[in-house]
Amino acid sequence: MFQRIQTIYLFLAVIVSVVLFCEPAAGGGIREAIDTCAAGGIFTVAGLLLFCFALTAIGGGLLPLIAIFSYHHRLRQIRLCHTSMWLLVPAAVGFAVGMRDYLDAAIPLLALIFIWLAARAVRRDERLVRDADRIR
Questions:
Q1: How far is CA 123 from the centre of its chain?
Q2: Helix (H) or strand (E) holding 27
């Protein structure tokens, strides 16, 4: 449901991912990386790396948004959270390697923390529902 704590965590992760998309650090952020790939071609090594980096960051930001609206299916929410975390790990590493400012490198890590907290809350809700079913 929308009033659960995991919805707040997932919403914060989406907001942080939007900030990651628009952050003008280290070459202009992901939006500029996509523009660079479109202008210079994706078939260069740098273009392919930028494109993969942008895809993982965008996927890591969209999956929590999808997970917010699949609140009836808690196991699907957990899987979406875990997939999003696995997609954001390369983005976090890429930001940590390419950043001059460590505050900008903390943006994907903040999204990872929010998604982890949401997955933990969903897992706790699932356990609570299973325990209540067992008592009946």
A1: 18
A2: none
Q: What is the C-alpha end-to-end distance of the chain, expressed in Å? A: 22
Tell me the domain boundaries of the chain.
Answer: 5-135
Question: Do residues 47 and 78 touch, judged by C-beta distance below 8 A?
Answer: no
Q: Would you give the DSSP letter of residue 1? A: -
pLDDT tens track of the chain, all 136 residues? 567 888 899 999 999 888 877 765 544 555 666 666 566 555 566 666 667 777 777 888 888 988 889 888 888 999 999 999 888 887 777 777 766 666 667 778 888 999 999 999 999 988 888 888 777 6
Could you tell me if 122 and 74 are in contact, meaning their C-beta atoms sit under 8 angstroms apart?
Answer: yes
Cα four-point dihedral sign 120, 121, 123, 128:
positive
* Contact yes or no for 114/12 (Cβ under 8 A): yes
HSE, side-chain direction, 13 A CA sphere, residue 27 = 16
Rounded Cα distance between 96 and 39, Å, is 25
Query: Is 127 in contact with 8 (CB distance < 8 Å)?
Result: no
